[in-house]
Structures are given as C-alpha cells and as structure tokens.
Amino acid sequence: MEIDKSQILDLLKGQGKHDEASKADSELPDKVDTDKHGDLLSRFGIDPKDLLGKLGGGLGGMFGR
User: Fold this and answer.
1) What is the DSSP code (8-state) at residue 60?
2) Residues 48/34, Cβ–Cβ less than 8 Å
3) Would you state the pLDDT for residue 52?
4) Does residue 36 form part of some domain?
5) What pTM was estimated for this model as a whole?
6) Residue 33 lies in a domain
7) Domain that holds residue 22
8) Percentage of the chain exceeding pLDDT 90
9) Would you say residue 49 lies in a domain?
10) Measured between alpha carbons, how far is 26 from 46 in angstroms, rounded to an integer?
11) Does residue 23 sit within a domain?
C-alpha cells in the first residue's frame, strides 16, 4: 500500500521523534510503498504491518470516506 510521506512524518512528529522525522523526510520517497520500503520504515522505528493502525483515521481521507 502506498502512503504519503507527509503522513509518516506527521506520525513520527506526533510521537515526539523529530530527529527521525527529519531523517525520514530526506530518505523516504514522496509515496512510500509499505511493501517495497519496509526496510526504510524500520530504520525509523515503524513496523509496516502496524502502520495502518497507527495512522488510523488519517487514511480515511485518502479513500474519500
């Protein structure tokens, strides 16, 4: 599944991980594919399998809820 990088950055910042968010901003592509970029996500303490649950309602807007 593809997720906008901005949502991941917001998640990290919301967790108080501002340094990780800054690094992620420079290393992640604009559209993050949870399957292809799982290794990159794990560098920032994000488990791709848990990502959808952590983003919660943030994804609802992406699908025209």
Assistant:
1) G
2) yes
3) 73
4) yes
5) 0.76
6) yes
7) 2-56
8) 55
9) yes
10) 16
11) yes
